[in-house]
Amino acid sequence: MSKAVLYIHGFNSSPQSKKAELTRDYLAKNCPEVEFHCPLIMNSPNAAIAQLEEIINSKTDVNWHFIGSSLGGYFSTYLAQKYQCKAVLVNPAITPYLLLSDYIGWQTNPYTQERYEVKSAHMAELKQLEQQKITENLYQVMVQTGDEVLDYQLAVNKFSNSQLIVQQGGDHSFINFADMLPAITDFLDLVNA
Fold first, then answer.
1. Between the CA of residue 181 and those of 15, 20, 32, 74, what are the distances in Å?
2. Largest separation between any pair of C-alpha atoms in the chain
3. Alpha carbons 161 and 175: distance in angstroms, whole number
């Protein structure tokens, strides 16, 4: 069975984010037989999940793997539990319905320049996606303690029995992410797919 990676970017990000592009380039060079998908995620949580599930369900003959950054890590957790597929979470959001309530109102995506509205209803949608019980062996969770956006300790607590990589310092972008790609592809068993 062939393998595919679905990279899920974070809030106000895009497929042009540095981590997405580094992942795309690394897989093309080192795992060329692995399909790579990184869509521009829709702005409403329910629409985003429907969009991602449509991609997954369009290829039922593929062994899917997820890489999610920030809010994308939250979405990846939901999908990993639903489909029982492995996921790598990079500085993942654990309670985005609390954090993003500060962003209700109009936003402009810095990558696409699209203006869109974050609504209070979106917080309820995010809460509905929360996974209380997780299958620990499905996850590799990478956090940096210098994350200025999210409290890394929330991820450490939630995924304490998963494969955890805690790096001192860094920031929300996950400094030196490129150095982690060999460990990511190893965890997802993508080499010689």
1. 17, 11, 14, 20
2. 46
3. 24
Backbone angles phi and psi of 143, in degrees to 5: -130, 155
Digit-coded pLDDT (tens) for 97-141? 999 999 999 999 999 999 999 999 999 999 999 999 999 999 999
Amino acid found at 186: D
89 forms beta bridges with 68, 141
Phi, psi of 181 (to 5 degrees): -60, -35
- CA 30 to the chain's CA centroid: 21
Domains of the chain by range and CATH?
A: 2-187 (3.40.50.1820)
Amino acid identity for residue 103 in this structure: Y
The answer to whether the beta carbons of residues 90 and 67 sit under 8 Å apart is yes
Q: Which two tokens stand for residue 185?
A: 């592809």
